Amino acid sequence: AFNKSLSPSPGAMSQAVAKEIPQEQGEGGSRRSSWGLLVTAGVGGTLVALYAVATPFVTPALRKVCLPFVPATAAQIQNVLKMLENRSGSLVDIGSGDGRIVIAAAKKGFQAVGYELNPWLVWYSRYRAWRDGVHQNTKFYISDLWKVSFSRYTNVVVFGVPQMMPQLEKKLEDELECNARIIACRFPFPCWIPDHTTGEGIDTVWAYDLKRSRGCETKSLEITPETES
Q: Where do transmembrane segments lie in this chain (predicted)?
């Protein structure tokens, strides 16, 4: 005879299946939710990392005047070095970007310094200087160019934009000594007359000897020694 006690009734089987199905669906939904969170976190983290690394290289840093980072071309670097021939003393690159002008000048024997507001570019510049073996002759500072005095430098390189050149011209004229040479790339200063020009198009470089712009030579001739009465 068939033992009814060992065979569940159809109603009991239906209830058991009904209880199992939601449980399986709940576990599957939970697993899918967990994977979704992991994928979202991974994609979000990757985007944040890419933004942190790439943004400083393609967008303007926070400056008084918008000064975007545009790497110097090989021709521009060579034109700058040409304007530095027969020059000595300290050199500063205002808005040094990724440090390529500073590093090139250091390879020519200058004690070269770069000022850049963007910390990512400064750290990258330091790495490049170390990689190229000139880290002992270079320094890079995270600083706003409008808050720095350039009075101790005799060679100044500027990659500027037209909006900042008039104010920067006045700042440098007030701070620099008469023996300073200022080299402007891409855009000239509005009032000074360049003493030397080389290159063409976006690679044009203008050099200004401050002693002529100020008339220092004329002033020195006008000064006569006092005579004893």
A: 35-54
CB 158 within 8 A of CB 164: no
Could you report the per-residue pLDDT of 45-70, keeping only the tens digit for each?
554 444 444 444 444 443 444 456 77
Residue type, 224: T
Q: Considering the entire predicted model, what is its pTM?
A: 0.66
Q: How far apart are CA 111 and CA 22, in angstroms?
A: 74
Residue 129 near residue 99, CB atoms below 8 Å:
yes
Pairing status of strand 155-159 against strand 181-185: parallel
- Is 47 in a helix, a strand, or coil? helix
Query: Which stretches within the chain are classed as H helix?
Result: 10-58, 74-83, 100-107, 119-131, 165-175, 210-214, 216-222
* Domain tally, the chain: 1
Q: What DSSP string runs through 136-187?
A: GGEEEEE--GGG---TT-SEEEEE--TTTHHHHHHHHHHHS-TT-EEEEESS
Asked if residue 108 belongs to a domain, the reply is yes
Does some domain include residue 127? yes
Q: N- to C-terminal Cα distance for the chain?
A: 149
- pLDDT-derived band at 80, boundaries 50, 70, 90: very high
Phi and psi torsions of 157, nearest 5°: -115, 135
- Expressed as residue numbers, the domain containing 150 is 74-210
